[in-house]
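Narrative of activities, Objective 1.

The group set out to show that a structural description can be obtained from nothing but a protein's sequence at a throughput compatible with the screening campaign. Below is one input-output pair from the validation batch, recorded exactly as produced.
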Amino acid sequence: MAYEIKWTLLASESHGNLVAYLEKEWSIKEVINFVNIVEEKLQLIAIYPELFITTNRRKHIHKVVISKQVILFYRHYKTKNQIELLIFWDTRQNPSKLKL
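Output recorded for this entry:
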């Protein structure tokens, strides 16, 4: 059974910002590659929500490496059969700015 994936506003904005950055600074090939990797990870999360590790501070929030520069944080709601995408985090940012 696949879980429903819900995008928060922050997840949607952070994903859009990363795609916009790639479009501006890199080739369309890199944009397509990034989008495909995200889609593959989301398919895995939908089927196996506990597959990826939890964060050190909050055990109910999982993180998945999309690329060396991007980590996706998400929350798994077992009772709702739902995955909530929280943020696509650019690892080059100051980690103290990350508020989950």
